[in-house]
Specification:
single chain; 347 residues; alpha/beta; Spore Coat Polysaccharide Biosynthesis Protein SpsA, Chain A; UDP N-Acetylglucosamine Acyltransferase, domain 1; 32% strand
């Protein structure tokens, strides 16, 4: 089975983090979210995946190269010279898909069983199937209404709760037949949600909806959602592979991480310390703190409910609560930060 992972967009709602990283490269538990997607697809039997890149494409390609391998799955990257939209990006590599295939957004965290969605799709003999998940707030998502046969009859984009036709949100996980791409114009910007799926319904094609209730899914579309995703992984609410060794029930420690003996007793609740990171004397971590690879937490510093991206430094005596600190950023000694999101300015 083959798949397409969409990784070309800007992820503007996650700014300022996405000012220096494309959203699919934002780390969750010290691993790019797109890597979690690759591992999910590999585990579910996909043997070849294609991914498109555009915004800050070099960040992705410098990390992976033009081709890589994840588990038993080959991954090939395609640079878009101009943004083509979600469906347009797939159309660009349509020749790769000769039979039923999967499309997944590369910037969401999920453990949806893709094989279940594929089996449902084939059972319904649909030209396209959308994985749907119930949400409490429909104002942030496109939603779909189903008939008794689980066919989608209508779509609605980010409705208020009083006008929503359903609470079933589009997860950005699709199963498609190759002929669905014949409805996508050549060389034009074209999306799935606003373009292809309505066009399929107008043409009388069957578009099915599969409720993935019980699976984890987050579009990590805001800084708040991004921080929550980190905590959810540490709490075991998401079936993903976390790199490192679990000490006791609460602490993940990466390879060659160094923790001063006086800091061990000051780690409260869940925490993650990445490869090569250092936690100094009397430093404290709490409330799901995530310390990325090669980060430094100085003497007596306190990191609460915050995410430190690779290479970030927290100076001695600093206090961070509910923050996101970008790659390589240096928090000065004695600083006190509440709810901040800080990244290094471009050189």
């Amino acid at each position: 089975m083959k798949a397409m992972v969409l990784a070309a967009g800007k992820g503007t709602r996650l700014f300022p983090l996405t000012g220096v990283l494309p959203k699919p490269m934002a780390p969750v538990a010290d691993k790019p979210v797109i890597q979690h997607i690759f591992e999910l697809l590999s585990r579910t039997g996909v043997d070849e995946t294609h991914a498109n890149v555009h915004y800050l494409a070099d960040v992705v390609l410098d990390h992976y190269g033009e081709e890589t391998r994840v588990g038993g799955m080959d991954v090939r990257f395609h640079r878009e010279q101009q943004l083509m939209g979600t469906a347009g990006g797939v159309k660009n590599v349509a020749e790769a898909f000769e039979e039923t295939f999967v499309v997944v957004m590369g910037d969401a965290l999920t453990d949806v069983d893709v094989r279940e969605v594929v089996d449902f799709h084939k059972g319904k003999k649909a030209v396209a199937t959308i994985a749907l998940t119930p949400v409490e707030d429909t104002t942030e998502y496109g939603v779909a209404a189903l008939d008794r046969e689980k066919s989608i009859v209508s779509f609605q984009e980010k409705p208020g709760p009083e006008e929503a036709i359903s609470n079933l949100a589009n997860t950005g996980i699709y199963v498609l037949e190759p002929e669905a791409l014949s409805y996508v114009p050549e060389g034009a910007f074209f999306d799935f949600a606003k373009g292809l799926f309505p066009r399929l319904l107008e043409a009388g094609e069957r578009v099915a909806g599969y409720n993935v209730r019980g699976s984890y899914w987050s579009d990590i579309g805001t800084l708040s959602a991004y921080k929550k995703a980190q905590r959810d992984v540490l709490a075991g609410l998401v079936k993903v592979e976390v790199d490192g060794e679990l000490w006791g029930r609460n602490l993940w420690i990466g390879e060659k991480a160094r923790i001063h003996p006086s800091a061990y007793g000051r780690i409260e609740g869940k925490a993650f310390i990445g490869t090569g990171a250092e936690v100094g004397p009397d430093a404290s971590l709490s409330e799901g703190a995530t310390v990325g690879r090669h980060c430094r937490v100085g003497h007596g510093a306190s990191v609460r409910g915050s995410v430190l991206l690779p290479g970030a430094t927290v100076g001695a005596g600093a206090y961070l609560e509910d923050c996101v600190i970008g790659p390589g950023y240096e928090v000065g000694s004695g600083a006190r930060l509440l709810g901040e999101a800080l990244v290094r300015e471009a050189a």
